[in-house]
């Protein structure tokens, strides 16, 4: 071990001793993540009854997801400047209250405009919460425990991804789509109470006016390459994942029960992967971030010749879910590592990049799916994922080069 590495290790150990871990706060935020992601994707399984009740098309009802993404981007780019030095605990509590209000507005919506207003409000919460997640983890636990804390945050995300669609469909069949949205309100209230009790006061120092601009972090080559790599990864992932259901129905020819089982396999594997990746990231950050999109690209290509057989498809999708759902944990750890003193700005920019990449990837995938079939969509997904792996490799090299120059000076 070099003297520099030894000094860095001593600094981490010293920081760990000075900062006790607040795991109660971490789990409280994980519950909030669960409610937030469930709220975000609840319309997916309820489009038909929503459209019928409000007198609109299913496509119009589906725009409730698009508008939440748009407002998430706008919020993530501006929230750091807007809230200034506001106590971050108070900010998280306000966002949690807004999440509950959003669910109530949607549940009580008498018309399409009100429904969209409620969906826009959940977008504000999504952008604000995820922008601060890395920074909050760094405040709640010692440096060596940040990967584990972020994995717990994303565990709530993965769990909601598993249960949101089937839960929405089940509740919708029993108490109606409005009742399904109302059911999220008490979950938000429980998360609010738990965060109120568990989170410490988190004041922020006053910053120069220019620090409110999240784009300033792109001056670093490491950050610029990393954001591009992250964007390419999510483009590739959702270019394929968005059209998985029509692929399974028309190519693999699965029935509804088998389709639900395959989706559950993806979600369950993702939950396991999310909980396990924290330990892997502690051994090295860039290895998983480079390897995951390469493996996913191989799966995308393999699904083309193997798509007619259920068992190989189930295995491939299980591996896809295991690593794809866990990957965001790595990217949030990357934010904490490369921007330890500017995690809020970096987190805000990353939320915007991810939301834009998801929209662009699903759009490109849909155009190719309609024009040339699933093969072109899956090949394009593989290409995007490989580009993401290459850009992430460039990110690691840029960071290593930056570290070398810092040592020489």
What layout of secondary structure does this protein have?
Layout: H1 3-18, H2 23-41, H3 47-54, H4 58-83, H5 88-108, H6 112-140, H7 146-182, H8 184-198, H9 221-241, H10 244-250, H11 256-283, H12 286-306, H13 310-324, H14 327-338, H15 343-372, H16 374-408
Helix pairs in contact: 2-6, 2-7, 2-8, 3-4, 4-6, 4-15, 5-6, 5-7, 5-8, 6-7, 6-14, 6-15, 7-11, 7-14, 9-12, 9-15, 9-16, 11-13, 11-14, 12-13, 12-16, 15-16
Instruction: List the total number of helices.
Output: 16
Mean pLDDT: 82
Shape: globular
Q: What is the alpha-carbon Rg in Å?
A: 21 Å
Assign a percent range to the helix content: over 70%
Q: Give the end-to-end Cα distance, rounded to a whole number of Å.
A: 20 Å
The total strand number stands at 0
Low-confidence stretches: 1-16
Task: Provide the β-strand percentage band.
Answer: under 5%
Overall structural class, as computed from helix and strand content, comes to mainly alpha
Main sheet, how many strands, which sense, barrel?
Answer: none
The string of secondary-structure elements, in order, is HHHHHHHHHHHHHHHH
Q: Outline of this structure?
A:
The chain has helices at 3-18, 23-41, 47-54, 58-83, 88-108, 112-140, 146-182, 184-198, 221-241, 244-250, 256-283, 286-306, 310-324, 327-338, 343-372, 374-408. With 409 residues, the protein is mostly helical.
